[in-house]
Amino acid sequence: MRSLPLTIVVVTVLIGNDLPRASAQVAASPRALEFRFTPTARAQIAIWIEKADGTFVKTIALTQATAFRGIGNRPGAYAMNSGFHWPYGRREGTLPVWAHRRAGMAGAKQFKRVIFQNRTSEGFASRTSEDSTPESYFCLAFMAPNAPLDAVSCASGFFSDKGRFIRDADVAKGYSEPLDSSRRPLDLVSLYPPRRDITRCSTSGCVDTPDTSLYNDHARDVMPDIDSVTMATPGGKMEQSLLFPVPDEWTNGNYVAWAEVNTEDDSNPSYRFETPKGDDWDSWAETFGYSYRGQPSVVFSVPVTVGTAGTYDTSQPSGYGSVTGFGTDGGAVHALDGTITNDPAGAPGSGADRFRLMPGKDYRLRVSVRGGDAMGGMGGMGGGSGAGGTAGSGPTDTCRTPPSVPGALAVAPSADAKHSHEWGHLHFLVPESAQQIHHYEVRVSKSPITADDPKTFEQGLPANAASLDSEELVVPTTGLPGSSTDVDFGQLQPRQTYWVGVRAVNGCAVYGPYAVGSFTTTAINFTKLSGCFVATAAFGSPLEPQVESLRRVRDAMRKESAVFAAATDLYYRSGPPAAALISRSDVARAVVRTLLGPIVEVAGAAQPVAADRRHARPAVPAGR
């Protein structure tokens, strides 16, 4: 994906749950806002609009880790360690200014708080009873603190506690979570939605609570536009162009556009937090993952006048949010001071530079207002990803004409056998459009997307790129009508059927009808690493150095001893069931790591000898 000559990624945000049917002719709004910013990698972002008097009006965009994966409202104490795809720990300091202001607007409903279903402390990552089921997305980071964020691979199956809603009886008993040196009583309300990617298990003896089947509908009830505002996490250092059509019912006048941005583990001398310690934290919390907390969220604001064309921007944050996201100042905007890093050259992408101040740019956030009948003024809104054209530069009547449906849409597993279980391939023909196409909206769903129910399209998840990171899919818009567009997309699960919908959006924020296809991913093709099944389950990844040491010595010894080779073959047949049992027990993992410790030490010392005896490392056998 990164080899494509793209410099601008574009997102269109729809209003509420009401989408046009495929056959409808949609009139373009004569007013629109365009947001431009260049985020750092893995940024969590909220964008919203307020009136000039501070009245919250609408959420414009919310990245999916918060809106869909539920990182702000899930089991585990707020200070719990984190890691790549870490499943626990409510990160209430992620986007606290947005969260408090949304919750405080007139008539706003509140989210129910999620806690562990049956553990003695919200600081325990280890289960104290049978409360966990297979995990589709998150996993634990089985490595020492401060390990690289990308170093973890969820090689073996992981089981997690999906939690439950806290109840009146819990609050009455004084249920609390451990803080750094005290305890915090928990109430019934959370400022964030719960995770919405759970399908409750249906097998006999299922230990998921009935609450897990309610998470999705509850989030939509509290925040009806949550599907339409959810956006994939933008790629780092790629300029974003977010286009928002102003609803007809909004009056012209003065508003304020807000953007809040945060990244985990963005520490500096003023904000550096240690791993939790004490009786309320178990060994997993104290030994693995890392203290993800760092500098608090940074907030940008730009006053704008809707109805009058103009451009407004800022190069400095308006302030920063709370580290914890709760307490008396949980939603406050603190004036900038010397505690926040503001050094784009020495610390790019950190602190104030999470919206990057890029070369040739004099702003970190820019909001362009297009208004009245001057739709021609929409020229310069960006011609889509890498298009570089003047979207919306034509007369109003052509601006109002939606693009046609993408042609010959086909989806299939990726042709790369190593990734066909987690990547899909999208093909379609570029549709006709009176205005240049601004971007393509691609949505992926495990439930059918149907042509006669536009809500099924909206409720799909924005597609992610075919990469390890959860980043948005970028689809080029430079093709001529009728030409082919082909791109891989990722973050899928093995042997799962997906529906994929695609539609084009022009520079006036007018979207055309969507085309739909479906496909099923393959099983995992284990071709890269052979199976040290028990060791992988114990240490968490086939990439761990302990597992690699054992694998290398095994490969060398198989050649030296027929008895050892026969024993290894027997292990290949018995290893997977044993690994499955080990992966379900934190205690078993710890015991096996202890038992393997001396062997790993010997294997590490023997590696140079083994390498010398074989002179060159043999190819790793496939399919084991």
Brief summary of the model shown:
This protein has 624 residues and is of the alpha+beta class.
What does this protein structure show overall?
With 624 residues, the protein is α+β, with helices and mostly antiparallel strands. The protein folds into three domains: 44-248 and 262-296, no CATH class; 396-520, Sandwich (Immunoglobulin-like); 533-614, no CATH class. The chain has helices at residues 64-67, 96-104, 168-172, 215-222, 226-229, 283-287, 396-399, 454-458, 533-539, 545-560, 562-583, 586-614; strands spanning 8-12, 32-37, 44-51, 56-63, 111-112, 114-115, 133-134, 159-160, 164-165, 176-178, 183-185, 189-190, 230-231, 239-245, 253-262, 298-306, 310-314, 319-320, 365-370, 407-413, 424-429, 437-445, 461-462, 464-465, 484-490, 497-506, 515-520. It has a six-stranded mixed beta sheet with strand order 13-4-3-15-16-18. It has a five-stranded mixed beta sheet with strand order 1-14-2-19-17, with no helix packed on it. Helix 9 (533-539) crosses helix 12. The longest helix is centred in the C-terminal third of the chain and has 29 residues, at 586-614. The two termini are 30 Å apart. The model is unreliable at 1-29, 144-153, 373-395 and 607-624 (pLDDT under 50).
